[in-house]
Design goal:
The complex is a heterodimer. Chain A is mainly alpha-helical. Chain A has four domains: 210 residues, no CATH class; 88 residues, Orthogonal Bundle (Fumarate Reductase Iron-sulfur Protein, Chain B, domain 2), CATH 1.10.1060.10; 119 residues, Rossmann fold (3-Layer(aba) Sandwich), CATH 3.40.50; 110 residues, Rossmann fold, CATH 3.40.50. Chain A is 58% helix and 5% strand. In chain A, the strands form two sheets. In chain A, strands 2-1-3-4 form a four-stranded parallel beta sheet. The longest helix of chain A has 29 residues. The mean pLDDT of chain A is 93. Chain B is α/β, with parallel strands linked by helices. In chain B, the strands form six sheets. Chain B has a five-stranded parallel beta sheet, with helices on one face. In chain B, helix 5 links the parallel strand 13 and strand 14. Chain B is elongated, with a radius of gyration of 21 Å. The chains are: A mainly alpha, B alpha/beta. At the A-B interface, helix 20, helix 26 and helix 27 of A face strand 15 of B.
């Protein structure tokens, strides 16, 4: 029994090279992991997380549940290709076993089973397998058809824009498109000559046998199997260098993620798994406001990850992002897009200047000696209405407050971190942390979500509870320490700041506070789907006019709710939206202070 | 008799209407407010000669009163403009042979620069508020006391990318110098500080006035913008700035802060541009046909510009524009015959 024919060579070469390259990549990435990450892997591998990870692999790498949720048609396309192909391989393997029993068959024997079945005469046909294999092939072909459709008319697939691809992707993509139609043809012609096959290959084979001269069929028989094998070979050869690397990479990524590995402030080896798990599906393009409002179409996460992967990332691409997190929220692979972008910036820009921060030594402009600390943050100091309102709220609640920066303080560090100057940011973090401990506060309240985020994520303030003022005010209201007047006549709409909502998961508290004062009307994009005000500190590339264009778009939506007042809970958002809005824009604390009973 | 509509009854519009009437045209002057005068109404004295603004305004009023064939329509806001017709907010439509747009500028709203605390803290006022105080002869702090230290901040809403006002408003520097002198005349013992980015003394007599402010009146000039204002413990205003000449940050308690608010383009401009095929500049001000030979004409035949509609201008320039636009209208109508 032979399992080799000359046409198998492209496939064998392609598959071998692919597996060697992929193995080499994974081994080198794992080898370069920091020791702490390796410890996490060892710990995770012997825990139940191994099984939850395996289950996620089934759901995401095969079934693509998350894409289904974002876009059912796109979900079906990915599922039919991935799960369909997987089943073709799995059922094909069972088919081999069914025919030949449990014996070793070389890889090409499974893949080109129909060919070798005809060549070796494995005995009577098994119609059930013929039917199942044809059905699976049909499923995959339907996916391929959708993929063609997506290229030709992305709008028909519910995407305004599809990804612009590089050469490797185009080659791999074209090969992928041809694999299954060629397989259909090769198998159908085989059926036409040798009989057998299910409703699809058998059916087409029957038609071919009737309509086409047998000589012609015999002439095209081998070339068709060559073409099928070559398409597979080309796809496999280009795969490790193309977007299709995601097919395999998502699997180790899911496991590592379940073992609690994650990207950090500085680039590390683990990032490779995230970067190469990007399928360049382009789902991140449509929610990007830089794309929708400003027509900037080369900076989105898909392009950022692509450029980073091929070592051609430029600062102007890395810096041109609001880091609003709208794409991260929707990414079907769940890649930590913001952290990766931030650590790329760090790699490009982190030049700590030791002299610059000498002034931090012995600096303390804080006032008061309460156990509750209030950190206004730079942006709140530039929007003093918020500061004044907080002062009134503290007074009304008779809270004894330690004012960290009322007469000027040191930045929380997040703006520097976002711009890539992580080491400089660390100096601010260390300074403020020491200051908080020195004044022995137990609660730290801030009205700036940018500060809040870095306090929670980087400061590791043990023994100090960090609260956003929305959480703090709600607590005061619930404890009865603060009373506000309610009027059904007052209508408000609320803008979710990126750093507060998607960034810190605080959606309900500000809304609960507003509903204590008046009626809340939701804008079109809200909560996890909320728009960015456009003035994000994270974007150092767009200019003021472009920021304003984005702000106007957001303001229009908020104005459209017909609420009397636009409320937000971030001083930067407030400043940004106020520039574009017709209605008055207030910070949450302002409407609370104005309605204190 | 040809009929010309002049939109805007500020100095440029008044001048233009009077000149047109002198050239034997029938003129309708539209003013959206209840009285003529535009921004100069409410101004105390004009730089650099300290001429009372009222003197200029009454001169213009007299000129209009003496002219034949002028209809003045106050409380009339133009909403649609073409070279042959102007529609008013009231729904009325006026036929004409040419239009001069002299709707001037809008004062920048200092509340947008919240960090300066206008509308939040007492004793943060704008240059326009100060002129009003001068007019009332009552320059005092909110609690009625006399200011001992006053800061004047230049470029509020001018040359500021953050509020989309990239242009220089041109007249604020010299206004700051003028107001500093007036304050010193009123309160010789007070310290007056000007915080500036550049001092642009472009007109005749301006530089001399700047020198005088320093030599005679001992007004202080600090190069640097104020970054933020907050109230301090003794209820004064704490300002934070950087002295960019010494390269040092600076904190100072002051009793009063005067914000020299800039000129920004009217919100209407873009509407007129879209509906009448007129061109706007990136700054929002209207674009004249060219900057030299046709600087009081628009890109549309029969529509002319006078005054600060095309760029920030001082009173003298606006008056010149008014007279020039009148001559241009006349020449254009004659050439049409």
């Amino acid at each position: 029994m032979t399992f080799f024919a000359d046409f198998c060579i492209p496939f064998i070469v392609g598959a071998t090279v692919m597996f060697i390259i992929i193995a080499a990549k994974y081994i080198s990435w794992l080898r370069d992991l920091p020791r702490s990450d390796i410890k996490l892997i060892v710990k995770g591998a012997v825990s139940p997380r191994l099984f939850t990870a395996a289950w996620e692999v089934v759901r995401e790498s095969l079934l693509h549940c998350r894409i289904f949720r974002v876009n059912p048609l796109l979900g079906y396309m990915h599922m039919s290709l991935a799960f369909g192909w997987f089943l073709l391989i799995a059922v094909g393997w069972i088919e081999t076993v069914a025919y030949l029993g449990l014996k070793w068959v070389p890889l090409q024997g499974h893949v080109f089973f129909k060919y070798f079945a005809a060549l070796n005469d494995f005995g009577t046909h098994k119609p059930t397998f013929d039917f199942v294999m044809d059905l699976l092939l049909l499923v995959v072909l339907s996916g391929v058809t959708l993929a063609w459709l997506k290229r030709l008319r992305s709008r028909a697939m519910g995407m305004k824009r599809a990804t612009k691809h590089i050469t490797f992707d185009r080659i791999a993509l074209s090969a992928l498109w041809f694999i299954f139609p060629l397989r259909l043809l090769a198998e159908s012609v085989t059926c036409a000559i040798y009989g057998g096959g299910g409703f699809l290959t058998g059916g087409i084979g029957h038609l071919l046998a009737e309509g086409i001269n047998a000589d012609i069929l015999h002439t095209i028989y081998e070339p068709l199997w060559w073409a099928y094998s070559s398409a597979l070979g080309i796809f496999f050869l280009t795969m490790p260098f193309s977007r299709y690397m995601h097919i395999f990479t998502e699997i180790p990524l899911i496991f590592l993620r379940h073992f609690h590995l994650k990207p950090e402030t500085k680039e590390k080896s683990y990032d490779n798994f995230e970067v190469e798990a990007c399928s360049r599906c382009g789902i991140c393009i449509d929610p990007c406001q830089l794309q929708a409002q400003l027509g900037i179409n080369d900076v989105q996460s898909v392009y950022f990850l692509r450029d980073r992967r091929y070592n051609m990332l430029q600062q102007k691409i890395a810096n041109n992002c609001l880091m609003c997190g709208r794409c991260e929220a929707i990414c079907p692979v769940g890649i930590n897009l913001n952290t990766l972008r931030q650590n790329s910036r760090t790699s490009m820009r982190n030049i700590p200047n030791e002299n610059r921060y000498k002034y931090l030594r012995n600096l303390d402009r804080s006032e008061g000696d309460g156990r509750v600390g209030y950190f206004a943050g730079c942006m709140t100091l530039l929007t003093p209405n918020t500061l004044t309102a907080m002062q009134q709220i503290f007074e009304a609640a008779r809270e004894d407050v330690w004012w960290a920066d009322k007469s000027g303080g040191v930045c929380c560090g997040r703006p520097l971190k976002l711009s890539g100057e992580s080491d400089s940011a660390q100096k601010m973090i260390d300074y403020n942390k020491e200051l908080f401990y020195k004044h022995r506060i137990t609660t730290l309240v801030t009205s700036c979500p940018i500060c809040l985020r870095v306090f929670r994520e980087e400061y590791k303030l043990e023994g100090i509870e960090v609260l956003h003022h929305s959480e703090y005010i709600l607590r005061l209201l619930r404890q009865g320490r603060l009373q506000v007047g309610y009027s059904a006549e007052s209508t408000f709409t609320y803008h979710d700041p990126c750093e507060l909502g998607r960034g810190s998961g605080i959606y309900d508290e500000p809304r609960a506070v507003i509903e204590n004062i008046g009626k809340l009307l939701e804008p079109a994009h809200t909560r996890k789907d909320a728009l960015c005000c456009g003035s994000s500190l994270a974007n150092t590339a767009i200019d003021d006019r472009q920021q304003l264009t984005i702000a106007r778009g957001v303001a229009e939506e908020l104005d459209a709710t017909a609420a009397q007042t636009i409320v937000t809970a971030c001083p930067l958002c407030k400043k940004a939206i106020a520039r574009g809005a017709k209605n008055t824009v207030k910070d949450l604390s302002e409407i609370v202070a104005a309605n204190i009973k | 008799m040809k009929h010309i509509i002049v939109i805007g009854g500020g100095v440029a519009g008044m001048q233009c209407a009077a000149e047109l009437a002198a050239h034997n045209f029938k003129v309708t002057l539209l003013e959206k407010d209840s009285d003529m005068g535009g921004k100069i109404r409410g101004w105390h004295k004009l730089f650099p000669t300290f001429t009372p603004a009222d003197e200029v305004l009454s001169g213009l009023r007299l000129k209009l009163a003496q002219a034949q064939n002028i209809t003045i329509m106050t409380g009339s806001k133009a909403v649609e403009i073409s070279s042959t017709k102007v529609a008013l907010a009231s729904g009325k439509e006026l036929e004409c042979d040419a239009v001069v747009i002299a709707t001037g500028y809008t004062l920048f709203d200092a509340r947008i620069k919240e960090e300066y605390g206008y509308g939040i803290y007492d004793n943060v006022i704008t240059s326009a508020d100060l002129e009003e105080m001068f007019n009332k002869g009552d320059v005092r702090m909110k609690d009625g006391s006399t200011p001992r230290r006053i800061a004047i901040l230049h470029c509020v809403g001018s040359r500021d990318e953050k509020v989309c006002q990239r242009h220089c408003s041109k007249v604020c520097c010299v206004t700051g110098v003028k107001q500093a002198i007036e304050l010193k005349q009123l309160y010789p013992a007070a310290d007056v500080f000007n915080f500036y980015m550049d001092i642009r003394m472009f007109g005749p007599g301006y530089e001399e006035m700047y020198r005088e402010a320093q030599q005679t009146y001992n007004v202080h000039f600090v190069r640097g913008r104020i970054s933020e204002v907050s109230p301090n413990i003794d209820k004064r205003l704490q300002i934070k700035a950087e002295d960019t000449l010494t390269g040092r940050p600076l904190r100072m308690g002051v009793d009063m802060l005067v914000l020299l608010t800039g000129m920004r383009a009217n919100d209407d401009n873009s509407h007129f541009a879209a509906n009448s095929n007129l061109r706007c500049q990136p700054s929002g001000f209207m674009q004249p046909r060219d900057s030299f030979l046709h600087n009081t004409e628009s890109n549309v035949e029969g529509i002319f510009y006078a005054g600060a509609i095309t760029a920030p201008k001082n009173v003298g320039e606006a008056l010149n524009d008014g007279a020039t636009a009148a001559l241009r209208v006349k020449a254009w109508l004659e050439s049409k015959k």
